[in-house]
Amino acid sequence: MKASPKFTRFVGLIGLSGLLAGSVTGTFAEDNKPNKKLVVGFSQVGAESGWRTANTDSIKSEAAKRGVDLRFSDAQQKQENQIKAIRSFIAEGVDVIAFSPVVETGFEPVLQEAKKAGIPVVLSDRAVKVSDPSLYACFLGSDFVEEGRRAAGPQLFDLIEAVAAGKEVPKRVVSQEGVFEQSQAAAELPKRQY
To answer: Model confidence over 14-30: pLDDT tens digits?
Structure first.
């Protein structure tokens, strides 16, 4: 199922708004430079789906509307490309770094570099596993386990009503799994009962 353009635009607007609101308040209030143009480095995981492409388009569009200097990098599904992009953003001295991690682990050293440089990091859509949660400012994304519970709720009652009516019902429930290793929550979904 392809996400509607309105939905992807809304998600992009919410995400970038959160990213911008947090960084403008934190960075510019301290610098006393309210007219300074915000520079954001964003590393996208890649373009593995129509949803991701729409997400990228909405981020770029929202940045342009807000006059944000967006430095965009497509990781092409490779963690080493994201790490290289994040290091490049650090070297450029961007105001905020945001990225949708390709995988959960392996980012701690580069996030330590960003923290040392005083550049806040926002995780978008996917989380990372690090020993120090202060290495990123926030995570803007979904709780996939909760989404599974909510989606199963209506289905559960559909099945209960069908059983009560004496109808034959399927004996198995199928769980859809995302990109391998994209997140621990997605990896655990097939193991959970709803």
So the answer is: 455 555 444 443 334 44
